[in-house]
Amino acid sequence: KNLSKRNKQIMEKNGNNRKLRVCVATCNRADYSKLAPIMFGIKTEPEFFELDVVVLGSHLIDDYGNTYRMIEQDDFDINTRLHTIVRGEDEAAMVESVGLALVKLPDVLNRLKPDIMIVHGDRFDALALATSAALMNIRILHIEGGEVSGTIDDSIRHAITKLAHYHVCCTRSAEQHLISMCEDHDRILLAGCPSYDKLLSAKNKDYMSIIRMWLGDDVKSKDYIVALQHPVTTDIKHSIKMFELTLDALISFNKRTLVLFPNIDAGSKEMVRVMRKKGIEHHPNFRAVKHVPFDQFIQLVAHAGCMIGNSSCGVREVGAFGTPVINLGTRQIGRETGENVLHVRDADTQDKILQALHLQFGKQYPCSKIYGDGNAVPRILKFLKSIDLQEPLQKKFCFPPVKENISQDIDHILETLSALAVDLGGTNLRVAIVSMKGEIVKKYTQFNPKTYEERINLILQMCVEAAAEAVKLNCRILGVGISTGGRVNPREGIVLHSTKLIQEWNSVDLRTPLSDTLHLPVWVDNDGNCAALAERKFGQGKGLENFVTLITGTGIGGGIIHQHELIHGSSFCAAELGHLVVSLDGPDCSCGSHGCIEAYASGMALQREAKKLHDEDLLLVEGMSVPKDEAVGALHLIQAAKLGNAKAQSILRTAGTALGLGVVNILHTMNPSLVILSGVLASHYIHIVKDIIRQQALSSVQDVDVVVSDLVDPALLGAASMVLDYTTRRIY
Can you tell me which residues form the catalytic site (predicted)? Predict the structure, then answer.
């Protein structure tokens, strides 16, 4: 309400509720895919905005598809067409094109007299637009500033940033870069990429007709490649050679491939010659096209087996679908990328590119929201409405020292980077919003249903509700981490085999339904491993290279950190520490064996022994009672031991001894620098375990410290750490 009131005051201050006159200038097919969602948004609010569209650059060239037509097909009135491209496709032609645009733009801007011009990205045409608007005292809103790629585009992008008055960035890193470049905090909006508004809602059941139209009737989904490669203007010769190697690799790989022509940068003419020299336009496995409408293009990349090249589209937009991407060379070297992107920095041999194709083709990754959450346009429109035209036009720079807090969004509220954490226990299902510092912002608890259908539906429902609540709490959710009992394949996000406590939970794909519903990346791991991850990030294992965590609860589990990394094992069965055998003739274990630590020291084992004592009237001592409607459990055994029950004390000592022998085996096998006992029973076992180490362990490991965890919710914190600690870069 306050923002709406402020917007109204600004409009009145701007003059009799005068509409904001916005000029959107688009230069090529790529920038139009980012600008179009904003243009549609502006068009839906005619009471606030007047829209003028200026088209220039490669939009108006036949060799590049005459892509201005798609703007007309979207029902936008093109106010001005400017032919600004000097043909030649070399460095000199790029400079001459900038000069020609600078000559023609003043007349257009004088005639339109916009209040603000929206400029996108880092193309040489965009530099001419920003230069003209700045010199003619027209406010500039720059989209996608602050990003880092790896070519001359970086220099152009940052030059436009210095000319622009307002900035809309897509990622937190880009926002930080803008602040480091001394831009005014209050004029930066972290909105996300506008194209993601369309990508994350793009559902086309008839995608097969689009695939057949562009690639042929015999092509299946996930069985073709999309290739899009542009020249690198700072190293044209090498980029042409790399394109040649790419085509050779694609020919050898022998899959149907859609090849899009490169952009108009210097070197593109030579790349087209390479295509024709290799007969790509007539090769039966290839379809070479100048342009694909954006709506159809996103369906093609969404259902491709792989995308290859060096286009920013591959490292940005394609992540929304989890399609595998091979990023070649240095053109996008500084971009933030999702786990779907495999980088081939030195693409200097055909074999290296071919090997990357074999590694990536046909995989499916979680969708990535690094560059947006689908709500960029509403934020941008709100930002536009907040612009006060009476403010001085001269922009201010915030020179160091920079404020400690980073720039705010349009509501002037700092969002907290957070994760959704899910803990699937035998009794309860818990979901929490966890901040980067390990603070549980909000937690939700429900009883864990007994059937698969009820359980998966409840997980989805709780996560959707938590994600919606996160917006109100100013938490930006980066992903979902799930902790569950049993054996888990974390690479695929599948529960392979569950514990007996969670029924109907074998061969369950958790990643796909959650990722599809929330449009977020999802990680899944065993609860013992999650406890170790929690200690590594938030607990007593922080900064340690090697340590082991043992969970003492209903069962006995654990996790092993070796050289700072979690150990999963060849069949994802590492750290099943509860099933270390400490006696050849011990009690039966739930795993089918006998003499395991879990058969002695778990909550279930103590409950078993407590019931035996209770049935023989040997459990209760003076000062102790068990209500008739209450089941006898491990806590009653512990209470009896504290009150002097000798038999209860003996059982606890035996359980602690079994656990201690297991720890000794761990010390002799792994030689960690620390052992952390976690869970409700840890404090009752710690002293016995230390005694057994002194009696049984080799002298060389007796100095290893054994401590009780001080974390309250290790499963939730560990699930969150999978999200918060995940690195988005992969190097090949």
Answer: 527
**499 in a labelled binding site:** yes
Among 201, 118, 130, smallest CA distance to 160 is for 130
- Tell me if 598 is assigned to a ligand binding site: yes
CA atoms within 13 A on the CB side of 416: 21
Beta-carbon contacts of 267 under 8 Å, excluding residues fewer than 6 positions away, are 89, 90, 231, 232, 233, 236, 239, 240
Tell me the per-residue pLDDT of 243-257, one tens digit each, with 9 for 90 and over: 999 999 999 999 999
The whole-number pLDDT of residue 411 equals 43
Q: Does the annotation place 530 within a ligand binding site?
A: no
Say if residues 577 and 591 touch (Cβ distance below 8 Å): no
Pair 303, 207: CB distance under 8 Å: yes
pLDDT band at residue 334 under the 50/70/90 scheme: confident
Report the Cα 615 to chain-centroid distance in Å: 54
- Residue keyed to tokens 């480091």: 180
Position 553 confidence tier, pLDDT thresholds 50, 70, 90 = confident
Mean pLDDT of all residues in 200-220: 87
74 is an active site residue:
no
CB contact set of 12 (below 8 Å; sequence gap of 6+): none
Q: What percent of the chain is predicted at pLDDT more than 90?
A: 70
**Average pLDDT of the segment spanning 31-41:** 94
Instruction: Say whether pLDDT at 15 is over 90.
Output: no
Dump the DSSP string for 475-501: EEEEEEEEEESSEEETTTTEEEE--TT
Q: Which listed residue (197, 525, 527, 713) is catalytic?
A: 527
* pTM higher than 0.85: no
Judge contact between 238 and 296, C-beta under 8 A: no
At residue 222, the pLDDT reads 95
Q: What's the sign of the alpha-carbon dihedral 674, 675, 680, 682?
A: negative
Q: Strand, helix or coil at 243?
A: helix
Q: What is the mean pLDDT of the chain?
A: 90
Give the Cβ contact number of residue 509 at 10 Å: 15
Determine the length of the chain.
732
> Per-residue confidence at 462, pLDDT binned at 50, 70, 90?
very high
pLDDT digits (tens, 9 = 90+) for 678-698: 988 999 999 999 999 999 999
Nearest to 393 by CA among 108, 128, 136, 181: 136
The answer on whether 589 is annotated among ligand-binding residues is yes
Q: What is the mean pLDDT of residues 215-225?
A: 95
| 73 vs 50: CA distance, rounded Å | 20
- Asked whether residue 527 is marked as a ligand-binding residue, the answer is yes
β partners of residue 423: 430, 483
Mean pLDDT to the nearest integer, 189-213: 86
Task: Single out the residue of 389, 390, 407 nearest to residue 398, CA to CA.
Answer: 407
Cα 287 to chain center, whole Å? 32
Residue 96, marked binder: no
State mean pLDDT over 707-722. Answer: 94
User: Is residue 313 part of an annotated ligand binding site?
Assistant: no
Coil, strand or helix at 452: helix
Q: Is residue 573 part of an annotated ligand binding site?
A: no
Domains present along the chain, CATH in parentheses: 14-193+376-386 (3.40.50.2000), 204-360 (3.40.50.2000), 410-539 (3.30.420.40), 541-710 (3.30.420.40)
Cα 647 to Cα 28: distance, rounded to the nearest angstrom: 82
Q: Between the CA of residue 391 and those of 386, 395, 396, 447, 692, what are the distances in Å?
A: 11, 10, 12, 56, 74
Q: What is the DSSP code (8-state) at residue 39?
A: H
Question: For residues 488 and 499, is the Cβ–Cβ distance under 8 A?
Answer: no
Coil, strand or helix at 711: coil
